[in-house]
Amino acid sequence: MSEERLRILKMVEEKKISAEEAAKLLEALESTPEKAANGRAHWLKVRVFDKGSEKPRVRVTVPISLLKIAGKLGGKFHMMMPEEAKAKMEAKGIRLDAESFEDIDNLFEQFAVNGRYQLVDVEDDESGQRVEVYVE
Asked: Which parts of the chain have pLDDT scores under 50?
């Protein structure tokens, strides 16, 4: 059994997530060849490189399907926020309602229709470290 599956089951055991949420997370971990063949992005990847190195020092890979589920669950947190906090965030242009998370879901659907799509490529002038964020 994979490490990710064990973590999800452990969260259920510790009552951090419900069985339904765990089922959705486990489903998100599934990646079938048919899905990969459709040309859509399936992974959000973050890579950190030291100066002059071609080999990443840090690698983070997250399934986009997991981010979509997190977005859908995140829309529920809006209901639990105090009205004052909601008002302050909305005054700054930040919306955390279900509709906003639906917009994010639609955005993920548009990423990397034909392969890799670079979101961020940043280099620190002093340290020379470089960070890439992309979907593929």
From this structure: 31-37
**Residue 111 identity:** F
At 62, the amino acid letter reads V
Supply the pLDDT for residue 59: 94
Work out the angle between the directed axes of helices 64-77 and 19-29 (0-180°, nearest 10). Answer: 150
CA atoms within 13 A on the CB side of 9: 6
- The answer to whether 68 and 47 have CB atoms below 8 angstroms apart is no
CA distance 114 to 107: 15
| Type of residue found at 42 | H
CA–CA separation, 129 and 53 (whole Å):
9
Note the pTM of the prediction, 2 decimals. Answer: 0.54
Distance CA 134, CA 7 (A): 25
Residue 119: its pLDDT value, please? 85
